Amino acid sequence: MKPLFIEYPKCGTCRKAAKWLKENGIEFDDRHIVDNRPTAEELEQWITASGIPVAKFFNTSGKKYKEMNLKDVVKTADRQQLIQLLASDGMLVKRPILVDGDKVIAGFKEEQWQEFFK
After folding, report:
1. How many Å is the Cα radius of gyration of the chain?
2. What is the mean pLDDT of residues 76-88?
3. pTM to 2 decimals?
4. pLDDT tens across 24-59, in order?
5. Looking at the 3D structure of the chain, how many domains does it have?
6. Is 83 helix (H, G, I), strand (E, B) or coil?
7. Which of 14, 15, 34, 40 is geometrically suited to a Cys-Cys bond with 87, CB 3.0 to 4.6 A?
8. For residue 95, what are the contacts with CB-CB under 8 A and spacing of at least 6?
9. For the domain that residue 60 is a member of, what is the CATH number?
10. Is 98 helix (H, G, I), strand (E, B) or coil?
């Protein structure tokens, strides 16, 4: 089964990650994070599998995050509230996300992705 690559095509980091996958001969299924946003159930699974705190799944540099003043909300809301918030709008979610079986990684740092595929 191919890894699932969840991205926003206009995102520069997503484009870099897609290029890296292609250069490394890794086939993947692509999913647009806005047109087909992650469900709360998917996010729950991915956050758990990644080992990353739910707050780190927010796109903190995004326009929506800033417009909604989520910096303080993320500090005080519980896990389920945060997951519901993430599921409400794909633009709030850190990207890209790569799901490969029971392994998940969010964001793109080449060294981490190399380690992910070892």
Report:
1. 14
2. 96
3. 0.92
4. 999 999 999 999 999 999 999 999 999 999 999 999
5. 1
6. helix
7. 40
8. 6, 7, 8, 11, 13, 14, 33, 59, 106, 107
9. 3.40.30.10
10. strand
